[in-house]
Amino acid sequence: MAMSREDIFQEVQEILVDALGVDDDEITLEATLMGDLGAESIDFLDIVFRLEKAFSIKIPREELFPAESLMSNPEFVSNGKLTEKGLAEIQEKLPHTDLTEFEKNPDLNKLGDLFTVNAIINFIDSRINAA
Amino acid sequence: MRFILIDKVVSFEAGKQLKAVKSVSLAEEYLGDHFPTFPVLPGVLLLEGLIESASWLVRKSEGFAHSMILLEQAKNVRYKSFLSPGAQIEYTVDAKAIEDNVSSFMGLGVSQGERIVEARFALRHFNLADDDSAMAAVDGEVVENMKNRWKLLWHGSNFGS
Amino acid sequence: MRWIWIDKFIEFKSGLRAVAVKNVTLAEEHLHDHFPGFPVMPECLMIEGMAQTAGILVGEAKNFQEKVILAKVKKAVFFDYVKPGDSLRLEAKMESLAPEAASTSGKITCGEKLIAEIDLLFSHVDNNLAGKEFPEENFVFDDTSVFKSLLRDVASYSSGTEFVESERD
Questions:
Q1: Residues contacting residue A54 through CB under 8 Å, at least 6 positions apart
Q2: How many CB atoms lie within 10 A of CB B35?
Q3: A61 at interface of C, judged by CB pairs closer than 8 A
Q4: Less CB within 10 Å around the terminal CB: N or C of chain B?
Q5: Where are the beta strands (DSSP E) in chain C?
Q6: d(CA C66, CA C125)
Q7: What ipTM was reported for this prediction?
Q8: How far is CA B101 from CA B52, B54, B133, B161, in A?
Q9: What is the pLDDT of residues C29-61, one digit of tens each?
Q10: What is the value of pTM for the model shown?
Q11: Which of B76, B81, B116 has the highest number of chain A CBs within 10 A, making it the mutation to test binding with A?
Q12: Does C32 participate in catalysis according to the annotation?
């Protein structure tokens, strides 16, 4: 099922409005799920379930939202920052996310900023429109 | 058991906001089932605390105009932590809109600085006599009882202060 | 009062759907406070009835090994109120089931009348809420006699005896 990015956006927007109780216009491509839209751990589960249903795909949670498994691993985190290994790990897990800005100061608290609406759309796009 | 899931109202601003508190005690029987080895206030009773707080905000703001104030819908009720015996929670409900027959709210419950529950919900208000004029006396009785309960929740909270 | 908000299951399809009934009676003390003079069943207790119907559906799907707790009421919409003498039918459907959580949809009816639609999200606490302390044993499903009793009238429920047996280990 091929879908344009605009169609994916529409669908994702509806899902986030329902799952997070935010308004349509709060869902921009740049909006971060945690910072701007107030998502918490349990909401990520909710969002994953809704995305799976809407797009008829299976999404392993750590594939879309790898933050939690990373944060608890001392190999990847040191003094509240991601180590080089951690950065490599997250880049591998988030091939669709541009980490250039984040790498300058890989503060754990900023990890949430990586999870934007755009990152979800990239992920879905790659999954359903892959050749 | 009784079904009053807030202990006192601590502040009230007509049409806008109400704050109430509830203490949790092992003396509350249902905690024996929820759960036998891990007693915590059931999540839906956290929601009930918010519903009751909002209902009082409506009753007081509209001068006890309606006997029936019921939950119409709740969305995104999120539970973030547990509330155990010995703890106290403060509920804050902010009215987004209070109209004649419906109202909507944002509700938050906090215990010792920790957010326990968050919800968006809407209430509907009506009188039984709206559908059946013979019910007017029942409406009156319910309203009278609720006025007395308000005294218990509000006057009681301000004794000695 | 006790904290059991369904009376029995009438259908139970493991991992798929469950239907329970709940009778509403004046013998329930709490109704007399909600409201004094005109008792109706509190909406939050209907949500709890659905949470128990759906929660047992979710728990049974993993053989009652997970601690299943209500994490989010995604949506609860009420269309009518419920009075003493009413008999409610609570139907829960599994929407998604994953190692760390499950989501369900459900509706409550009274005769032909739709009373409520309630969609819930459950968390398996051992796989979430890291850092919080919980009892070692499964505090949610430790009293299997309650479920056995709730499932007493479901003739087609076959794995019931299995889970009771395995819980004894």
A1: A11, A15
A2: 20
A3: yes
A4: C
A5: 8-13, 17-23, 68-78, 87-97, 101-110, 113-124
A6: 8
A7: 0.95
A8: 17, 14, 18, 35
A9: 999 999 999 999 999 999 999 999 999 999 999
A10: 0.89
A11: B76
A12: no
